[in-house]
Structures are given as C-alpha cells and as structure tokens.
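Input sequence (206 aa), recorded before submission:
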Amino acid sequence: MVWNNGFMPRDGTATRARLLDAAEQLIEQNGFAATRVDQIIAASGSSKGAFFHHFDSKQSLARELVSRYVDADLRLLDQGLAAVAAIDGELERPVAFLRFYEQWAADLVSEESACLYIAVLTERDLLDDATLAEVDRAVVAWRNGFAALLRPALAVRGLPIAPDELADHLFATFEGAYLMCRAARSPEPMRQQLRVLRQMVEALLD
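Predicted structure, token format:
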C-alpha cells in the first residue's frame, strides 16, 4: 500500500514479504537444504541485516513460510466450502465441492508449480516440530472440511466407509498431482486427477 505522501510504510512489512516470497520460490525449486540464505537475500533484493532482523535463522524463516502457506491453503478450502454451502442435498454437496477445484485446476498450478509441503517434508530432519505441526494443520483442516460434507452423504447411502479416510484422498490427490504436473511440465494432470476423484465419489454416492 502506498501512503498519500507517496512513500511506502517503513515497518518492514514489504521487505518481510519479499523475503518470504523469494524463499518460497527457491525452496519449491531447489529444496530446503539446497537453498542458502544468501540466495534468498539476493532474490529478494534485500540485505543480510534485513533478513536477520525478521528471522532468527533459516529454520525460523521456514516455520513462518510454511505457516503463511497453510493460511493461504486454508483460504482456498474456505472458498470451496462457501461455494457449496447453499446447495440443498447431502449427496450433491461433496460432488460439487470436488467440481469446484476441478474447474479451477488450471489456476492452481502451472508447468513450474511445486508444493511447499512436499519440499519441506522430504527434508524432515532439517525441520522442527512447530513447522511439521503447521503442515498437519493443513492436512487436518482439509480432512475435517471435506469429511463434514461426506459424512451425511455416506449415511444417506448407508455406506460403511470412514469419511475421514475418504476425505484424505483429496489432499493426497492435490499433492500427487503437483508432482505429476512438474514431471509432465503441464498443469493438466491436476485437472485430470481431480476429475477422476470427483467421478469416483459421484459413482459411490449415485
């Protein structure tokens, strides 16, 4: 935001955001261990002093970066839940929820897309419990959100399927599709995998 006098606010918000943006891109591309602090500083156009003013260490930055990523991820979850909230019918809501993400799949990824969750979890030993807890916050939120739609639908059909375990397939589909998109250099696998999951749930509830 630009103030009326034309100057940016000097509370460090913009610098912090640039550091986090640069770190996210580098870590997704190269991994956590291979990303050096000086690379983050150079990519953000910042300084070493600014980096350590905002973050005590590289691990501190990773923890805050993952927390920010989770917050954005859960906003995406909230959008999907809001989109189906007014739908009347237990059997229709889970399918419409999946269709929401299927329709937006091309906007979720690009040929260079990667997922920060994958980047950090493949180097688990380098991360602390607080960072891993943030990833778990995302997993649990997606599970609970989708399971809340699945539970009444499965009950209507009398299907002996655990809604939480079925709900986890959506998070697993997102993460697996990210890897497929990167390997194929195309966003199409995300749409394909979300479509297949939606078709499976649709057939299950039909």
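Checked by second reader. The chain has two domains: 1-55, 57-205.
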